[in-house]
């Protein structure tokens, strides 16, 4: 157990930071690629803006996790909601009615989940525990 405390935890933290850096770099590259796509097309479409918003949320999630060491579960939910909206916008004409309904219901469930989580954080906060808050 002493070896883990000395080397294991530090090694895992280093790997965690490396992966966070890789995610941030990959997201920045994807933003650049999308910017070039917009430039080449000569116009900005709603799907492009939503994709850029998804990238922005990923960067915000990485920054939040790097700063606090905690990942609010709401952030991936926001990304999922925007991704579903983008999917609907891009492919709605080619989708069957049941698929549009399923994606819409999925979005509603995710949005409801965000509201419930936020309500729970406000009305029933976790007690402060030094062991877990550090």
Give a short overview.
With 134 residues, the protein is mainly α. Helices cover 84% and strands 0% of the residues.
Describe, in plain words, how this protein is organized in 3D.
It is a single chain. The longest helix is centred in the N-terminal third of the chain and has 40 residues. The two termini are 20 Å apart. This protein has five helices and no strands. It has 134 residues and is mainly α. Helix 2 runs antiparallel to helix 3 and helix 3 runs antiparallel to helix 4.
Descriptive tags:
single chain, 134 residues, mainly alpha, 0% strand
List the helices and strands and how they pair.
Layout: H1 2-41, H2 46-68, H3 74-91, H4 97-123, H5 130-133
């Amino acid at each position: 157990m002493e070896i883990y405390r000395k080397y294991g935890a530090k090694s895992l933290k280093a790997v965690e930071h490396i992966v966070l850096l890789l995610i941030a770099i990959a997201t920045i590259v994807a933003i650049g690629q999308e910017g070039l796509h917009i430039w080449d097309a000569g116009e900005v479409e709603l799907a492009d803006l939503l994709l850029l918003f998804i990238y922005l949320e990923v960067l915000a999630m990485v920054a939040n996790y790097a700063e606090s060491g905690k990942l609010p579960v709401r952030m991936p939910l926001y990304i999922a909601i925007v991704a579903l909206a983008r999917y609907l916008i891009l492919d709605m004409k080619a989708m069957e009615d049941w698929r549009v309904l399923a994606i819409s219901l999925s979005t509603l469930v995710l949005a409801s989940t965000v509201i419930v989580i936020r309500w729970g954080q406000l009305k029933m906060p976790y007690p402060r525990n030094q062991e877990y808050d550090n």
